[in-house]
Amino acid sequence: MSKRLTTWLLIILLTSIVLTACSSTPKQIVQYEGDPQMQATITVMYSGGLNFFNKDYGDLFRAKYPNIEVKVIGAWRDVEKVREEQKPDVLLLSYEDYVKLTGEGKLYDLNNMITEDAFNLEGVNQDIIDFLRQSGGGRLYGLPPHFDNQALFYNKDLFDKYNIPYPQDGMTWNEVFQLAKRFPVEDGVSGFKTAHLSSLRYKMETSQGLRSVNRKEMKVTVNTESYKKLFETLVDAHRSSTLEIKDYGEEVYDSFITGKSAMTVDYYYYLNNNIYWAKTERGDDFHLNWDVATAPVGESNSKATPYFIFGNIYTVNADTLEAQAAWELVKFINSEEVARMKSRTTTNSIPTRTDYIYNPEGKRMEIFYKNLNMDWALRENNPKTNIPDNFYVILGAIMDSEFMAASRGDKSIDEALQSIQERGQEELDKQLVEKSKKEDQ
């Protein structure tokens, strides 16, 4: 071989090595299907700690991957601090943290791992997948096995008894309260029950796209015609006893469970914590004949329910040295196999795999997947806000007290809204000053 040819071959070899290194963005080559006998040690963030992780997923995962040791970080406040100091391979993130870490390039891009043959996403609600892709700039960095949404729960026997038509999907709040008014208060029946006024009001605000604060100008904005209509609806329902506002606290069952209220709106967990729990406790003595319709909507956006929220989003740390094993855990937790096993019992949240929601009584559980308003969720879950964390709690208390004053007739609704705006602005200004002082220290 000539010296010139040898030189050219060496140049070509070196060039190919450099190009290969530059083109390999993932730090490891991750296979789509891992070897069940692979050996690795990974660390996962799991809020309940080791015992809860083992109960939820750990024992099942070890049965499939006996040679992968999983360590658990059980409690944290600062996700970024845990990521930097303890370097977990798998992170459980809120939506806010998902957006933040994705934007900073600190999560592993899962697109190359998810292929049609390797991990089937067809059974997962596509609105949720599309939402996460949109949040990740068109790429997917995490998978959530569960999410949450609200529904309108109603007592079919009460509707039948008083010959009142069942609630329909897509009803506005005003239509729901008009329906609730048809139940006879004199019989000890309320048309609608809520545990807390503030939570009900927030649901109504959310459905109508109302914001109590202009986040750009940092101004409280409740003294408006839209809020006036909302307050008029609530005050009218409360004065007529159509609306029952009662926190049952230590009492065993609320009035919907005991058959004294015809309707309530709540998240999916109401099934597990109230309805299924009562059925387990009372057995054959429990006779609630219930079903669900989509949660009430706003008049201007009657085709979408804005109550969608995430639980945990499972992600892989971009700096992991065990990407294959970490992906196997994320994939397993979000798999059809696990969803099928979990569907045999009730849970506090809704599986993203739509075929595996717990439904032993054949109820209309598909409504929890209907009309998810992702555009609203993108806006509402934007973590970039300068409003102090505690402000909305105090504003809610102010709004509650002014509402009750209007409901008693001590104030007009206009006076109540004006007072909310003034008191709320005073509180916001005070908290912003305090927040600024803390940041300067």
Write up this protein.
Residues 1-20 form the signal peptide. Keywords: Cell membrane, Lipoprotein, Membrane, Palmitate, Signal, Sugar transport, Transport. By secondary structure, this protein is an alpha+beta fold. The chain folds into two domains: 40-145 and 312-354, Periplasmic binding protein-like II (D-Maltodextrin-Binding Protein, domain 2, 3-Layer(aba) Sandwich); 149-307 and 377-435, Periplasmic binding protein-like II (D-Maltodextrin-Binding Protein, domain 2, 3-Layer(aba) Sandwich), CATH 3.40.190.10. It is built from 15 helices and 15 strands. The protein has helices at residues 3-23, 49-64, 79-86, 95-103, 126-135, 156-161, 173-180, 197-207, 225-239, 269-282, 323-333, 336-342, 374-380, 391-408, 413-440, and strands spanning 40-45, 68-73, 90-93, 142-143, 146-148, 150-155, 192-194, 213-214, 219-220, 243-245, 263-267, 290-294, 309-310, 313-316, 350-351. The chain has a three-stranded antiparallel beta sheet with strand order 3-14-4. The protein has a three-stranded antiparallel beta sheet with strand order 13-5-15, with no helix packed on it. A three-stranded antiparallel beta sheet has the order 11-6-12. Helix 9 crosses helix 14 (391-408) and helix 14 (391-408) runs antiparallel to helix 15 (413-440). The protein is globular.
